[in-house]
Amino acid sequence: MTEHETGPGDRAAAQQAGGATARAGVRQDNGAQVKTGKDNGGVPEAGIPELVIISGMSGAGRSTAAKCLEDLGWFVVDNLPPALIPTMVELGARSQGNVARIAVVVDVRGRRFFDNLRESLADLDARGVTRRTVFLESSDEALVRRFESVRRPHPLQGDGRIVDGIAAERELLRELRGDADLVIDTSGLNVHELRAKMHAQFAGEEEPELRATVMSFGFKYGLPVDADLVVDMRFLPNPHWIPELRPYTGLNDEVASYVFNQPGAKEFLDRYAELLRLVAAGYRREGKRYVTIAVGCTGGKHRSVAMSEKLAARLAAEGVETVVVHRDMGRE
Predict the structure, then answer these.
(1) What would the pLDDT profile of 152-196 be if each residue is shown by its tens digit?
(2) What CA–CA distance (Å, rounded) separates 201 from 134?
(3) Fewer CB within 10 A of the terminal residue: the chain, N end or C end?
(4) Which regions of 129-243 does DSSP assign to beta strands (E)?
(5) How far from 298 is each of 132, 218, 314, CA to CA, in Å?
(6) 3-state DSSP call for residue 132?
């Protein structure tokens, strides 16, 4: 929506979002900054807009996630007070299809309004608005490095340290994180990798019933904080101790054959795939659209990689849109 497409009533409603922070290069209406996407091709017909709420830890990549959606044609509002989210949706509904997908960034800069978020979400549910919440997570260590690199204080640290602000923000956002549809851990991601994750989740013109990320990882590097389900492949013999297999990964045919020729490997795959079929049906009934399945072994190089590939293939065969991520492969 450009300036000449906005009527007086729309501008007046947008001006009510006082206190929201503006960024350069976009239209501003004395408050909430409105970023428009490159185009609106492929969006649904006129009606109630689709809504995505982007939140998470300061420094975890909210701005990058918002810019990615903007590039995909979403109408993005940065730091809109939660109480004004229903008003923004109403404006989109009156746009005659010009604003059919809205993304709203909600963060602790608007903390005095944050208590209104639950009430606003209940209002949206009553109106039948299709909404999803994306939560950007990151480790304390990664967040501290990012704040120190830009020499900026954490918005909640006050007279304390950066870690104090991070702890306060985690507590404030704990409930929202638990209710999020999609949690993305950006601790080990660069800007391009985060954009790729957002693009994989939101670039499709049609929303699938369920999206799954199958992630291999190494226990010695820590559990993925964004995992919904975690399974352990360390009950299988480790190809690391086979000299001719050690240099390769679970993507290698010989390594995969070794893993699945071990007692219990194929049986585990069959039974866990059957369990996931049951879980996926429940997720669909509950309206959950995203699930991250973490498959671990010691180093995240052999067993977890081979099992993740097979498991992802099973899920895809069941009609689940699946992405495979090998978090720790190559770290050794």
Answers:
(1) 888 888 888 989 989 988 888 888 888 888 999 999 888 888 888
(2) 10
(3) C
(4) 131-137, 182-185, 211-218, 229-232
(5) 34, 5, 23
(6) strand
**Sheet of 290-297, strand order:** 229-232, 290-297, 211-218, 321-326
Position 312, amino acid: A
User: Over pLDDT 70: what percentage of the chain?
Assistant: 82
pLDDT tier, 112 (very low <50, low <70, confident <90, very high otherwise): low
Length, in residues, of the chain: 332
Winning range, highest mean pLDDT, from 1-10, 29-38, 82-91: 82-91
C-alpha distances (whole Å) from 237 to each of 163, 217, 221 are 41, 17, 19
Instruction: Residue 155: name the closest of 108, 191, 102, 224 by CA.
Output: 108
Q: Can you tell me which residue has the tokens 């081979």?
A: 306
Contact 321, 210 (CB under 8 A): yes
Query: How many angstroms separate the first and last alpha carbons of the chain?
Result: 49
Give the helix/strand (H/E) hosting 259.
helix 253-260
Cα–Cα dist 162/154, whole Å: 6
Backbone phi and psi for residue 132, each to the nearest 5 degrees, phi listed first: -135, 150
pLDDT at 30: 31
With beta carbons less than 8 A apart as the criterion, state whether 232 and 296 touch.
yes
**HEC string of 35-74?**
ECCCCCCCCCCCCCCEEEEEEECCCCCHHHHHHHHHHCCC
Question: Which secondary-structure segment (H or E) carries 86?
Answer: helix 85-93
Look at the block and give the residue holding tokens 């909210």.
62
Whole-prediction pTM value? 0.57
Q: Which residue has the tokens 């009510």?
A: 16
SS3 298: coil
Q: List, for residues 99-110, the tens digit of each pLDDT value.
A: 888 999 987 765
CA–CA distance, 38 with 112 (Å, rounded to integer): 32
C-beta of residue 67 within 8 angstroms of C-beta of residue 94: no
